[in-house]
Write a structure and sequence with these properties.
alpha/beta, Rossmann fold, 7-stranded parallel beta sheet, 6-stranded parallel beta sheet, single chain, 2 domains
């Protein structure tokens, strides 16, 4: 059996779907030695991505069409057929919303979330317009849809009117944190100027992450007099609005901004944080929850969308629309050592239960059922 996979998300700055893909692929290769995997990468410039085939049958096919051009051609002209670019395949798998025109191949599509339908005000308007036009088409075109959570599967049925029998839920695994030696750990702490204790947020700084309410809760809680707040993640859309709120806070100087951090830096940030604050307004799953838990970092997150599925009873869950609830939970985690120790212990076990072995084997079974 030949399976084509769109790996264009494996660009040089791997976030979101890229990180999902770079951890899923090795697991697929490790547990499926018989299938031939055709990995499709397209970019006009830059190097091709590297990956560990783990002894599996795999090959990389690269084309040099501008991705915007290719996406438009696939979406609106149904041209070129994927097989004309990558060769004949039996099944096409897309981890990133798009199913290209195919000859006779079956297709599997992962939909990580449909925020552009569920909460369009939290997504970039141009993306809302694009995906609202195309996602139902791609979902109809796919033979099987994989959802990252039961919450996402429910949204797909409700908003896209897709038969639930066509949807399979496969939880992502916990993305392994990078190994860090003691000398490296010391250098990273010095480089980032990490304080002894801090509250941490990890993720793209954008409206859906709910940082405006988090900042207000932190500001009025009095915690800024006791402990700083570190943000780690790239700048997203409407950052200027958040920045205005930030600059008007009494605690503004206690909020420390780090941009994109390396994998090893991320490990050190999680390991040394007093707790993670992640009361997002909407998530398809919430990988930072499990990342933090795997490092023994207690977690405060939301009681909406898929976050309770990721967190279970191993985190403090709050109403993300309530500044009072966020403030109360932050104060509770700061003051209660026993609670933090309990969440850290339970969180490690929780994170260990979400494995890429499980995710890969469920996806392999889907492939085999379609052949």
């Amino acid at each position: 059996m030949k399976i084509g996979i769109d790996i264009r998300a494996l660009n040089s700055l791997r976030t979101g779907i890229g990180r999902y893909l770079e951890t899923l692929l090795p697991a697929l290769f490790r547990y499926d030695k018989d299938t031939q995997y055709i990995l499709f990468y397209n970019s006009l410039t830059g190097p091709s991505p590297t990956y560990n085939s783990a002894g599996a049958k795999s090959s990389l096919v690269r084309t040099y069409i501008p991705n915007r051009v290719l996406n438009v051609l696939w979406a609106y002209a149904a041209f070129p057929k994927f097989e004309n670019l990558a060769g004949e395949i039996d099944i096409f798998y897309s981890p990133s919303f798009q199913v290209p025109p195919l000859k006779k191949s079956r297709s599997v599509l992962t939909i990580h979330d449909i925020v552009f339908y569920h909460s369009p005000e939290l997504a970039i308007p141009s993306a809302v317009r694009h995906y609202k036009r195309r996602i139902t088409f791609y979902a109809d075109r796919a033979d099987i849809i994989v959802a990252d959570s039961k919450a996402t599967a429910k949204d797909i049925v409700e908003f896209l009117k897709i038969d639930g029998e066509k949807i399979k839920v496969i939880y992502p695994g916990t993305i392994p944190l990078a190994d860090v030696t003691e000398p490296e750990r010391s250098k990273i702490k010095n480089k980032l100027r990490l304080p002894e204790e801090y509250i941490l947020f990890v993720g793209c700084i954008e409206p859906r992450k709910n940082l405006a309410r988090v900042f207000q809760a932190y500001n009025r809680s009095g915690l800024s007099e006791e402990i700083p707040f570190i943000l780690a993640g790239p700048t997203g859309w409407r950052f200027d609005e958040l920045e205005k709120i930030w600059n008007n806070l009494e605690a503004k100087d206690r909020i420390i901004r780090l941009d994109y951090v390396t994998e090893k830096e991320l490990t050190v940030l999680y390991e040394n944080a007093l707790f993670l604050v992640f009361p997002s307004l909407f998530e398809g799953f919430g990988l930072p929850i499990l990342e933090a838990m795997s490092a023994g970092c207690p977690v405060l997150t939301s009681n909406v969308s898929a976050m309770p599925e990721a967190a279970g009873d191993c985190a403090l869950l709050v109403d993300p629309l309530s500044e009072d609830a966020i403030e109360e939970a932050m104060l509770r985690l700061y003051r209660d050592n026993i609670l933090r120790e309990e969440l850290a212990r339970k969180g490690r076990d929780r994170a260990a239960s979400f494995t890429w072995e499980k995710a890969a084997n469920k996806l392999i079974r889907i492939f085999n059922d379609l052949r």
